[in-house]
Amino acid sequence: MNYKPVPRSDLSTKREVSYKRTCINKLVELFSDVDDFCKVFLPQWYAYQIKHGQIKRIRPCQMSMAEIMTVIILFYILNQRDFKNFYKDYLACFHKKDFPTLLSYTRFLELMPRAVSPLSSYFKTLKSTASDICVIDSTSIKVCHNVRIPRHNTFAVVAERGRGVMGWYFGFKLHLVINHKGEIIAAKVTLKISMIQLLSKSSLKI
Questions:
Q1: Based on the number of CB atoms within 10 Å of its own CB, is 65 exposed (0-12), middle (13-18) or buried (19 or more)?
Q2: Quick one: which of 3, 35, 5 has its CA closest to 99?
Q3: What percent of the chain has pLDDT over 90?
Q4: Is the confidence at residue 161, as pLDDT, over 70?
Q5: Band of the pLDDT at 194, cuts 50, 70, 90?
Q6: What is the three-class DSSP state of 1?
Q7: Domain boundaries in the chain?
Q8: Which pLDDT score is estimated for 69?
Q9: Backbone torsions φ then ψ of 172, nearest 5 degrees
Q10: Of the candidates 111, 105, 119, which has an alpha carbon nearest to the alpha carbon of residue 30?
Q11: Core-most of 71, 87, 132, 198, by most CB within 10 Å?
C-alpha cells in the first residue's frame, strides 16, 4: 500500500475552512442568543424610556440592536485590541454576508453608546449561581499609559491612580467572583479599592 502524503497547502486549506466554519457557527449561536434577548428586553426598555421622557420616539436604524451588540461582543471574544482594524479589515471583509446592513465605521461608533444598557442587562442574564467554592480576583483596567496621564481627558474626572501587582496604573479595577466551574457570579468596577475593602463593605453581592 503506497502512502501519499497530503501537501501542506491542502492541509492549511482544510484547517482554514474548518476554522471559518467554527467561527460562523459560533457567530450564529451568539447572534441567536442576543436576538432572543433583544426581542424581550428592547420593547420594555423603549417603553420605559418613552414613559419617563428620555426619548420621544424610536428611530429606526439600518442595523438592529442585536447586530450591534453581536459585533461588540465578537470584538472581545476574538481578543482584538484595535476596534478600527477589527471593524474595517476583519468584519467588513470576512463577515459582510453575515451583516448585510453593516454600517460605516464612523456611524457604528455613534450608535455604540445606545448598546450600553442592553449589554449590561444581557450580561446579567449570563450570570451563574454561587456554589460551595467561589473565587474572587481583580485586575486593573488602564485607560491610558502612565506617561499620558496629565494629558488624558476622557476619564480624567472619574478615573484614579492605583497600584496593582503589575505596578502603578491610571483607571479602574474590575472585580470578578466565579464558582468552581469558572462561571461568573458577580462583577463590579471600582476605583482604587482592594478586595478586602470591597468585601468588608459588602458592595459585591453574590
A1: buried
A2: 35
A3: 28
A4: yes
A5: low
A6: coil
A7: 8-125, 134-201
A8: 95
A9: -130, 180
A10: 119
A11: 71
